Amino acid sequence: MHNALQGNTHRFYIYEKLILLSALLIFYCSSDDDEPNCDCGIVEDYGWTYENGEELYLLDIRNGCTNQIYTIQVTYNIFSSYNSTGDRLCKISVIRLD
Predict the structure, then answer these.
(1) Most Cβ neighbours (<10 Å): which of 3, 14, 36, 55?
(2) pLDDT for the residue numbered 3
(3) pLDDT tens digit sequence for 18-41
(4) Are the C-beta atoms of residues 69 and 44 closer than 8 Å to each other?
(5) Lowest mean pLDDT among 5-9, 16-20, 43-47
(6) Cα of 30 vs its chain's centroid, Å
């Protein structure tokens, strides 16, 4: 009888750990990743213009939070990396020049 109780206790301990692990996994999977990043967006269009003899590189970005499209000025290096429509761009507040 004593061995049967030990077996049940051990089985209960394993189930308890599985439930805890499952709860942690569910919590981890439902974290902030599903929420839109307001500092990210999708390149909708791109172009360049001249102002005062200087070339300006522009990207039209659809904001991930507001879904609004706005134009930002970026360096040539950023422009050459993200000048395709549909590209995802993040850290907009850091890379924009305007």
Answers:
(1) 36
(2) 58
(3) 676 655 555 554 445 556 679 999
(4) yes
(5) 5-9
(6) 14
pLDDT confidence band for 56 (50 / 70 / 90): very high
Backbone angles phi, psi at 40, to 5 degrees: -130, 160
* pTM metric for this prediction: 0.61
CA atoms within 13 Å, Cβ hemisphere of 76: 3
Which run of H or E residues covers position 78? helix 76-81
**Which residue do the tokens 């499209």 mark?**
69
| Segments making up each domain of the chain, as ranges | 2-34, 40-95
Report the sign of the C-alpha dihedral through residues 85, 44, 42, 82, in that order.
Answer: positive
> Could you tell me if 81 and 91 are in contact, meaning their C-beta atoms sit under 8 angstroms apart?
no
Provide CB contacts within 8 A for 65, sequence distance 6+.
Answer: 36, 37, 38
Tell me how crowded residue 64 is: count the other CB atoms within 10 A of its CB. 18
